[in-house]
Specification:
Elements (H helix, E strand, L loop, with lengths): L15 H18 L1 H20 L10 H31 L2 H6 L5 H29 L8 H25 L2 H18 L11 H7 L3 H13 L7 H21 L4
Helix pairs in contact: 1-5, 2-3, 2-5, 3-5, 3-6, 3-7, 3-9, 5-6, 6-9, 6-10, 9-10
Protein name: ABC transporter
GO cellular component, one term: ATP-binding cassette (ABC) transporter complex
GO biological process, one term: response to antibiotic
């Protein structure tokens, strides 16, 4: 007579939500341990906020500079974490074979992307808290509905996360490194973060206004600086970028 064995833990894949949560926790730990990414995601936005709020370098229009700059720097923090930092880290994970090994696990491709986006959100919570404390110390006086701000940040994160994963999953690691940093610098200057969009020619304003960084910074500025209602136009632009970016990343992302 053959006795059926009892195995603990039971062999087989864990439930999908548990796999995604475990991968998100791992991604968050790796992100917070990476000194270069912390420089990009925390130190640079902080320095820009303090410098441009304290020194009259750029004409930000009427009102205090910190009230104009803080929403833009919050948008920059989202972009640096969800797009630039994530694209570079994922690109080199792909090069070194980390993603190839994950492909052999039960975690689906969309589950990995979900975990990476969740880790980005955790990091952004820390970023927003730090930048908010510094902005208040500089005399910032925000307005508007916090729920609208949260919606803008979440949609902005989804948009930039999709674009970052699309870049990391289709280009070589070295190309991703160069392209992600170049895009970061270009959008820092032309995305309404530090320099108001109305300083550009009208034709350029129309094009730049459709970029995700411009929609996020303008939407945050409309709510936090001017206390307006829900900026549906900016939310719409971010939603389109989020759907397009995540959809393209899901379709074209390669494990190796």
């Amino acid at each position: 007579m053959t006795t059926v064995g009892t195995y603990a833990p039971q062999p087989g894949a864990a439930p999908l939500p548990r796999m995604i949560a475990a991968q998100a926790a791992l991604e968050t730990k790796m992100l917070l341990r990476n000194g270069e990414q912390l420089l990009l995601t925390v130190v640079i936005p902080t320095l820009l906020l303090v410098l441009f709020s304290s020194v009259d370098i750029v004409d930000t229009g009427k009102g205090r500079a910190v009230d104009f700059l803080t929403p833009g720097v919050l948008a920059l923090a989202v972009m640096s974490t969800a797009f630039t930092g994530q694209a570079i880290a994922t690109g080199f994970e792909r090069r070194y074979g980390v993603l190839k090994r994950l492909a052999a696990s039960p975690l689906p491709r969309w589950g990995l992307m979900t975990a990476k986006t969740a880790s980005v959100l955790v990091t952004e919570v820390l970023q927003v808290l730090l930048l908010t404390v510094i902005a208040f110390a500089l005399g910032w006086s925000p307005h508007g509905n916090p729920l609208t701000v949260l919606l803008l940040l979440v949609l902005g994160t989804a948009a930039f996360s999709g674009l970052g994963l699309l870049m990391a999953g289709t280009l070589k690691a070295e190309a991703t490194l160069g392209a992600a940093n170049l895009v970061f610098l270009l959008l820092l200057v032309g995305g309404g973060v530090i320099v108001p969009l109305d300083k550009f020619p009208q034709g350029a304003q129309d094009v730049l206004g459709l970029l995700p960084i411009s929609a996020l910074s303008d939407g945050l500025r409309a709510v936090l600086q001017h206390g307006t209602g829900t900026p549906w136009g900016d939310l719409g632009v971010l939603a389109v970028w989020a759907v397009a970016g995540l959809g393209a990343a899901g379709a074209f992302f390669r494990w190796e």
